[in-house]
Design goal:
By secondary structure, chain A is of the alpha/beta class. In chain A, 34% of the residues lie in helices and 23% in strands. Chain A has a single domain (3-161), classed as Rossmann fold (3-Layer(aba) Sandwich). Chain B has a five-stranded antiparallel beta sheet. Chain B has a four-stranded mixed beta sheet with strand order 8-7-6-11. In chain B, strands 12-13-14 form a three-stranded antiparallel beta sheet. In chain B, helix 7 (179-209) packs antiparallel against helix 13 and helix 15 runs antiparallel to helix 16. The chains are: A alpha/beta (165), B alpha+beta (474). The interface between A and B is large, with 45 and 51 residues.
Chain lengths: 165, 474
């Protein structure tokens, strides 16, 4: 079974590119696995309902996004299904995505974690901010450890702590 | 004056916010929906080669990138001196657009407005009735996902990619639809049409069950603005501009979209970054209008697919004077368009032109290119000027949400008048305002999608500037 790595954000909106840029770095790493399972990559602008189809049949899911208010340089935390009401069609929360999965397939979704990389500036046409570049490097160092692990021990240890690192 | 400020859930700065202004007698005097203007695109586009624009503009907005892609491609057609595409190119673009509108509308109804129908009202009896309707259709959420997925497959096969597609290029298209792709899409299309038809019927049931309430909710009277075909039929990709007054008289018809600046003008208010377009001949006060599904289905004389046309006739019969002004009827019109898109996709898939090899037309370079399209939320204008090196020197975009700006304010004010005036703020009352805005589904500054959300917050501030009540919707 594969592990889905789903990074979302807009490459042309400053630090919103953090997720897709980390995914690009992961794709260049020689060891293409997470917890000993092959990786399936996915990028999009935002989380939407159809992504439950991409999660189907996966061992685990790693979501990667930029975080406007999160911990520096990044946080890693479990996501559980929860239904939110939306204000517009402009994306949905990861928790609601998992809830949609449950509704759709009448079963619990794959174990899912969120890697949230701290970003600062999200203007159209801007490059990554200096601090975001540093946070990207830090997050990649962390993800490389996950990719080199032969099991989910490190992933699970963090999830047991249930707090941002 | 008392001011109630509502900060809706949003992920980044530039989100929408509602301020309700009350006088000392607690009467609503004004409602303002604050949405940051669609900004920064000029800088983003300027200096770029024109041929890059249809791809670049998809990064303006992650919500409807295909609409920007196609509007820009239409503008680029004019820049390269092309006014008529090959049949293959024209039909491939239309197929892409039908896929885009289908998936966008499906998301809106099945996963956005359906919860509104469940939770958006504070009348317990009505609430229970609606829940009962939804409980009879537990498969709704699943159908929504699959409808959206289908629309995205249409986009992928016509644009070449799921996101950042490159299908439409200046003067045409860069691929046709293979037989394999066609057959893949044909496999499910009858199911898609069936689900679309069921969705219209379901909404009709919900709407008519509490007809008076739904008709009166956020009711305003506005002009309607959209593209139509040469014979007046519903049109999403191309056509002439038509505007209809609130009393159902044509203001103008079959106007060349490239002359849009002769028809509309943009007014500025000091409190908003977003402009307020209006029909020039009617002036600022009377010239504001609505765009999007409600305007399109009202504006057209017919729909050229049979099942959607049946639904349109029934929809139009809602109003004795032939123009449906009910704001919640946006959802109904949206679902009629879903059905139309599904039927149109089926028709196109049986058209052998999609497998044609003649993809591009060339012409003589021009300095100005304007492309207008009916995006899911309404009319979208792209206007570019290039220099002698083919680099963009000027760009002007008017997005659907800007076109609906004044109408949204008017609808919010109407709801506030009825439900908030003089009453204590409660969460169900806030929901009423959200339901109103959601009917239009505004684009919130084509927002980025960083984590972090701001809870819905309401501040009640008295005429002396003191906060007397605060509500937070966590």
């Amino acid at each position: 079974m594969t592990v889905l790595v789903f990074a979302y954000g807009n490459l042309s909106r400053g630090d919103d590119a953090l997720g897709p840029m980390l995914l690009q770095r992961m794709q260049q790493h020689p060891k293409q696995q997470l917890g000993g399972h092959p990786i399936k990559y996915l990028t999009d602008y935002q989380v939407q309902i159809e992504h439950v189809m991409d999660m189907q049949g996966c061992q685990r899911v790693l979501l990667i996004d930029a975080s406007l208010q999160g911990t520096e340089p990044f946080s890693f935390s479990p996501i559980l299904p929860r239904q939110d009401t939306h204000y517009t069609t402009h994306g949905m929360t990861p928790a609601t995505l998992l809830n949609t999965y449950t509704t759709m397939f009448d079963t619990l979704p794959p174990q899912t974690a969120m890697l949230a990389i701290r970003g600062y500036a999200f203007e159209l046409g801007e490059q990554l901010s200096e601090q975001a570049v540093m946070n990207l490097k830090a997050s990649f160092l962390w993800v490389k450890l996950l990719m080199e692990d032969e099991d989910f021990f490190r992933w699970d240890q963090i999830e047991k702590i249930e707090r941002p690192i | 004056m008392t001011k109630i400020t509502i900060d809706p859930i949003s992920r980044v700065e530039g989100h929408g916010k509602i301020t309700l202004h009350q006088d000392e007698n607690q009467r609503i005097t004004q409602a303002r929906l604050h949405i940051s203007e669609f900004r920064g695109f000029e800088k983003f586009i300027q200096g770029r080669p024109y041929w890059e624009v249809p791809v670049m503009v998809q990064r303006l907005c992650g919500i409807c990138p295909v609409s920007h892609h196609l509007a820009a491609a239409k503008a680029m057609d004019r820049l390269v001196g092309v006014s008529q595409l090959t049949p293959t190119a024209e039909k491939m673009r239309k197929l892409m657009h039908f896929g885009q509108v289908l998936q966008s509308h499906a998301l809106h109804f099945f996963h956005l407005s359906s919860p509104d129908l469940l939770f958006g009202y504070d009348d317990e009896v009505r609430h229970r009735n609606i829940i009962g309707v939804i409980e009879d259709h537990p498969e709704l959420a699943k159908q929504g996902v699959l409808l959206r997925k289908y629309g995205q497959e249409v986009v992928r096969m016509t644009a070449g990619k799921r996101i950042h597609g490159t299908g439409a290029v200046p003067g045409g298209i860069n691929k046709h639809l293979s037989i394999t792709e066609r057959d893949e899409l044909l496999k499910d299309i009858d199911q898609i049409i069936s689900w679309s038809q069921n969705a219209v019927e379901l909404f009709k049931t919900i709407f008519l069950r509490n007809r008076e309430y739904h008709e009166q909710f956020a009711l305003i009277s506005s002009n309607m603005f959209s593209l139509v075909q040469a014979d007046g039929a519903l049109e999403l990709y191309d056509g002439g501009l038509r505007a209809r007054s609130a009393d159902n008289a044509l203001i103008f018809d079959q106007q060349n979209p490239e002359k849009y600046l002769d028809l509309i003008h943009e007014h500025v208010e000091s409190w908003s970054f977003m402009k307020f377009p209006f029909i020039r001949s009617l002036g600022v006060d009377k010239g504001w209008y609505r765009v999007g599904p409600l305007a399109r289905v009202n504006n057209c004389d017919s729909i050229d697919t049979p099942l959607a046309e049946q639904q349109r006739v029934e929809f139009k019969a809602l109003s004795a004077d032939g123009i449906v002004q009910y704001t919640l009827a946006y959802h109904w019109a949206r679902l009629i368009e879903v059905l139309h898109c599904a039927e149109s996709i089926k028709q196109l898939l049986h058209d052998p032109d999609l497998q044609g090899e003649d993809l591009l037309v060339k012409g003589d370079m021009q300095a100005v290119g304007i492309g207008v399209i009916e995006a899911p939320r309404g009319t979208l204008f792209h206007h570019y000027e290039i220099n002698e090196d083919g680099l963009i020197k000027k760009a002007n975009l008017i997005v659907s949400t800007t076109n609906n700006n004044q109408a949204m304010n008017e609808s919010i004010r109407q709801v506030a008048d009825v439900y908030l005036d003089g009453r204590e703020l409660t969460e169900p009352l806030l929901n009423q305002l959200e339901v109103t805005v959601r009917a239009y589904d505004p684009c919130l500054s084509c927002a980025t999608h960083a984590l972090g959300k701001m809870p819905l917050q309401v501040d009640l501030i008295d005429h002396q500037g003191h906060t007397t009540q605060s509500l937070s919707k966590a």
